[in-house]
Amino acid sequence: MKETAVKAYRAMEMARAFDTKLSALYKAGKMYGGVFLGRGHEAVAACEAVFLNKGQDVYNPFIREQAGRCAWGESVLESARSYLGSTSGCMRGRDGNIHWGKPAEGMPAPISHLGAMVSVVAGMIMAKRMQGHSGMVGVLNIGDGTTSVGATHEGCNVVAVEQLPIVIVVTNNQFAYSTPNSQEFACKSLTDRGRGYGFTTHECDGTDFVQTLTTMQRAITAARNGEGPQWVVAETLRMCGHGEHDDATYIPAELKAAFAERDPLAVARRQMVQHGWLTEAELAAIQEECAAEVQHCMAQAQKEPTPVPSETDWSATSWKPSRY
Ligand SMILES: Cc1ncc(C[n+]2csc(CCOP(=O)(O)OP(=O)(O)O)c2C)c(N)n1
Q1: How far, in whole angstroms, is CA 53 from its chain's centroid?
Q2: Superfamily name and number for 2-72+115-302
């Protein structure tokens, strides 16, 4: 477990360093579009993706899963390029956001429409099954708010009926934009929703690194071993606004206080030392490496050209993907 834990932890540090830089650039007026951070989501994202294999599996992170993108094996350079509109990025400078993907490598680009990706991942996994593949698993992220969207329901139903090897990770960060859980759903727990579709369900404290790691391992292994679709509800708090344009003043002080000691990064650092997986000096070295890597990648993406509108072929279909 040590190697897996260290890999996941490093991805969390990289994502936090990236978010910190991204937020600074946003506040400096250097970003063209919205900026969406994953503060509070790092353990969930890193611990799911660390059990996946690029080339075999399907992984669909959403806007708060930078740590998952890193654990899947992507450099933060790709996210920097997407946010900054670099033509060297896989979206060729057209995204200006975090909706990027490399479908040929098993990571579809998520779209904003909540719930739409459930059926996309289901389709990708069904295609693999029709091609005779086995042993693959699809993991996708949805939020508490997304569980109420019609497209989510339709997609989940197909996943369950087809008994697809898919793990749906519901990160309950207590709010859908500014709407609190109490106004989002009337069932006792979001786990009930997964059970209703016919998924096997799991729950974890998404701020507890070790608990999240073992829960994800159990769910992903079960899906991979043919035990049908799995539904994981991970509880955390979004430690920021919906985007950096949102000051999150609607999050009650008591709730913030209740989570004050539970920053997933702080918990993970403590647990890495407690388990003897890393020393304090090694933790510090990883944090420094991540900060340097983020600095380098942001600087690199800022130097790269952005599309020239008059010369760019904006057609979505005329371009043949050669790289991804
Ligand atoms: C179909 C659809 N309806 C509404 C929106 C607008 N919208 C964007 S994010 C969001 C809240 C999402 O909440 P949640 O699923 O809990 O994820 P979180 O942002 O909390 O991580 C909403 C309503 C959308 N993108 N798509």
Answers
A1: 15
A2: Thiamin diphosphate (ThDP)-binding fold, Pyr/PP domains (3.40.50.970)
Ligand 1 atom closest to Cα of residue 112: 25
Indicate the top mutation candidate among 97, 114, 146 to test ligand 1's pocket, ranked by most ligand atoms within 8 A of CB: 114
Instruction: List the chain domain ranges.
Output: 2-72+115-302
Give 268-306 pLDDT, tens digit per residue: 999 999 999 999 999 999 999 999 999 999 999 999 999
Q: Please give the Cα distance from 116 to 97 (Å, whole number).
A: 18
CA atoms within 13 A on the CB side of 276: 0
Decide whether any atom of ligand 1 lies within 6 Å of the 102 Cβ: no
- Integer Cα distance of 156 and 167 in angstroms: 10
For residue 90, the SS3 value is coil
Dihedral of CA atoms 37, 40, 45, 47 in degrees, nearest 10, equals: 150
Q: Mean pLDDT, to the nearest integer, of 109-123? A: 97
Which atom of ligand 1 is nearest the CA belonging to 62?
A: 21
Could you please report the per-residue DSSP string of 241-301? -SSTT---TTS-HHHHHHTGGG-HHHHHHHHHHHTTSS-HHHHHHHHHHHHHHHHHHHHHH
